[in-house]
C-alpha cells in the first residue's frame, strides 16, 4: 500500500514538473513578445498596452522615468545614447525655409479601426487601408493615431495643451520599415471634429475597457495643413526611442474643447505623457510655407 502511495505521489510530481513551461517554451513566448514589440516600434511610438505600462513612466526622478528609459532595457539604449532624439523645441530662429519640400500630399480614406488603451495613451489603430501620405515621392501608409498631453514638441519654448501623432510607415527593400509621424498641436478652444466622433468609445475606455471596435473611422476629420509645416529627423518619443523617424509638425495650432482634453486625460488616469525636450545637436529644422503668414493659431 505504502509503495502504491509512493508511486502515485511520484507520478503526480512528474505530472507537475512536465506541466510547467520548459525554458524552451518560455523562450518561444519571449520571442513572440519581441516580434510584437519589433512590429510595434517600427509602427512608431508606444504600442505598449495597459499590462505593460509599468515598464516605464513619465515621472521626473522616478526609477522608470524619462532619464532612466535608456537604462531599463538594452533594446532602449537609444533613449540615452541617441543623438537625434524627439521631441525638440522648434525654435523659429533656427529653422531653414525649404520651398523644395512642397505641399504635403495627404490621401486618407475612411477605414475600420479599433480604439485601444495602451496604458500611457490611447490609440486609434486602423485595421483596414486608411490611406497614406507622400514624402519625397514615397508613400507612407497611415497606421494609427494617439495623443500626448501636454504637447511633446514646443514652438519657441511654448508648450501646448495637447499633441496628436499620426503614425505612418513604409517598408523599404533595403532599409526596412521607415516611420513618418505628423504632429498636430492643440490649445483649448472649439471642439475638435475627430475627437467628437470618438466621444462614446473614449468614455468606454475611461470605464475600463481596453479595446473597442469603433467601426469605420475617417482620418480626414483631422485638420492638417499641407501648406505650412516643420520637418526634421528625429526618433520615437517613447521607448525604444528608435531614430530615423521623419517628423512633420503642422505649423497651425488647432483647438480642442476643455471637455475633450479632460476625457483624454481621464482615459490615461490624468497622468502627463509627454517626454521632456531632447537636444537638437547639429540637426537642421526645415520649414515649408506656401505663403508668408504670421498668425498660425486658430481663434477660439
Ligand atoms: Zn506619440
From TrEMBL:
Superkingdom assignment: Eukaryota
Residue intervals of the Alpha-carbonic anhydrase domain: 54-289
Signal peptide as annotated in the record: 1-24
Assigned keywords, A-Z: Signal
Gene3D superfamilies in the record: Alpha carbonic anhydrase
Listed PANTHER family: CARBONIC ANHYDRASE (PTHR18952), CARBONIC ANHYDRASE XA-RELATED (PTHR18952:SF208)
Protein name: Alpha-carbonic anhydrase domain-containing protein
